[in-house]
UniProtKB/TrEMBL annotation:
Residues 1-23 are annotated as: Disordered. Residues 1-54 form the HTH cro/C1-type domain. This is Helix-turn-helix domain-containing protein. Pfam families: DUF5753, HTH_31. It comes from Streptomyces qinglanensis. One of its GO terms (molecular function) is DNA binding. Transmembrane segments: none annotated. Residues 1-14 have a biased composition (Basic and acidic residues).
């Protein structure tokens, strides 16, 4: 694109705020393009509002270790008006503390599933997702946690203790609703696997779910609406936010120190 416009590397550097040496290093693959560089180049080339941007390519490269569909889900999550989450086994990323997120990422390194660099990228991605929630107006966030999420040890006891504190703090936010689905719900629980549902500003819906090997972003209402109905049924059957927070607080007090 630079050559098609007849620009020298110096000119692209001037337009993006980077040196020609940096531009050269990105073009030859000696340096990975950062998100800031990619966005600056999109603006310089006038393609920031198109579907095929350098920012999108940057995310695809950076998130190559993530399951299929998840990078696309994250991109939509940053623009969603409503976010609904049901998680099993772990606290969802939007609520994770950095220490909790790092424990999960490091466990993947120890198993040989990801590299240390990919682990750091995953922790950084969680921070980016959480930062994207601080916007005006903020998205409405509904979170239902399986009881296993708040009981599963993660690293040192202090890590889980701080994480439970964070969950309680999130429940206090005016745009967040939090519930815990206890084991005692048994067969009354309509969902058994993690599920994420987004409502976009235009009221369109999409859902994201994962198997062991891949993730799937669904945009067809024929498949999303039954999942949304099941999520509402889950919310109706689960204890209230006040009851759920009380449950977490009791567990928090019993956490070994």
């Amino acid at each position: 694109m630079r050559e098609a416009r007849g620009w020298k590397q110096e000119e692209l550097g001037d337009r993006t705020g980077y040196s020609s040496t940096h531009v050269s290093a990105v073009e030859t693959g000696r340096k990975m393009p950062t998100l800031r560089f990619s966005r600056s180049a999109d603006l310089a080339f006038g393609i920031a509002d198109t579907r095929d941007t350098l920012e999108q390519q940057h995310r695809e490269i950076r998130h190559g270790s993530l399951l299929e569909g998840f990078p696309q889900y994250v991109e939509c999550e940053t623009r969603a008006a409503e976010i609904r989450v049901y998680e099993v086994g772990v606290i969802p990323g939007l609520l994770q503390t950095p220490e909790y997120a790092r424990e999960i990422a490091n466990s993947g390194v120890k198993r040989g599933a990801i590299t240390p660099e990919q682990a750091e990228e995953r922790v950084a991605l969680i921070a980016e997702r959480q930062a994207a929630l601080v916007r005006t107006p903020p998205p409405l966030i509904s979170v239902v946690l399986d009881e296993s999420c708040i009981r599963r040890p993660m690293g040192e006891p202090a890590v889980l203790e701080a994480q439970l504190d964070r969950v309680i703090e999130c429940a206090e936010q005016p745009n967040t609703m939090l519930q815990v689905a206890p084991f005692a719900m048994g067969a009354r629980r309509p969902l058994s696997l993690p599920l994420y549902i987004l409502t976009m500003a235009d009221r369109s819906l999409m859902s994201y779910a994962e198997s062991a090997q891949r993730g799937h972003l669904e945009r067809d209402n024929r498949f999303v609406l039954p999942m949304l109905t099941a999520y509402h049924q889950l919310q109706a059957a689960a204890p209230s936010q006040a009851e759920s927070v009380a449950m977490i607080s009791r567990l928090r007090k019993d956490t070994p120190r």
